[in-house]
Amino acid sequence: MSEGDEREFRAETPSDGDLSDRPYAIYQCTDCQNVVLSMQDCEGGMTCHGEAMERVDEAKMDVEPPALREVLLDAFGLPKAGLDICLCVIGEGPLSPGEVAAELEYDESTIRSYLTELVDLGLLEKSQLNREGGGTVSVFHSVDLEEMRRESLIGFYVWAGEAAALLEEANLTKAEYLDADHDERLDAVFWEQVAGDRTTES
User: What confidence tens digit (pLDDT) does each residue in 168-195 have?
Assistant: First the structure.
C-alpha cells in the first residue's frame, strides 16, 4: 500500500465517535470497569461475571484510525520491507534468502534479518531442503494462513493489552496525584512514574 493509498484509506475510515458500523465490537460491563474488544459481534453479546455486557456504540474520545503500516510497525516492529518479504514468501515460497533477494532486489543481509524476525513472529517457517547436487539449503515458507490470522491477532491483542495497561497506569497516576499533596506539577510526576523519565526540552 503506497502512502497515497494509506491517506485515502485513512480519509475513508470514520474517525468520529460513532462505533455502530465498525468491523469490531466493544463491550463494557455495567457493574465493573471491564471493557472487551471483539472482532465479531457475538450472538447474545458478551458476559462479565455472569451478567450481560453492554455494547458501546459511541466513543466520546475521537481517535484517529491508524494506517496498516503504522500498526505493523508499532505492534510488530515490521516496516514495509519486512511486509514485502513476508508477502513474497507467502505468494512464491518456499524460497531461500537468495531467491527472495532476487525477487525483491533487496540486499540479502536485509532479507536474512527480516526472515529470522518473521519466523520469530510466527508468520513464516524455516526448513531445510535437499539440494540435487548434495547438501541442504535453508528455505522459508508460510505457516497455515488460518494459523497466521489467529497468531497475528493474538500478537496484536498482546500489544494492545500492554498499551491499555500503560493507559490505565497513567490514569491511576493522575488520580493519585489529585488525591495527594505534591510539590511538583502533575506533568513532572506523571512522566517520572509512568515513563520513568522526566520530560526534557528538545
Answer: 777 766 666 666 766 677 666 666 666 6
DSSP labels, 138-164? EEEEEPPHHHHHHHHHHHHHHHHHHHH
For residue 52, is it left (φ>0), alpha (ψ between -120 and 50) or beta?
Answer: beta
**C-beta atoms surrounding 134 within 10 Å:** 6
How many Cα neighbours within 13 Å face the side chain of 100?
29
- What is the spatial distance between Cα 43 and Cα 51, in angstroms, rounded to a whole number? 15
Provide the mean pLDDT of the chain: 79
Q: Which residue has the cell 494492545?
A: 160
| Distance of alpha carbon 184 from alpha carbon 199, whole angstroms | 13
Tell me if 29 sits within 8 A of 45, measured CB to CB. Answer: no
pLDDT 10s digits, 75-109: 888 899 999 999 999 999 899 999 999 999 889 99
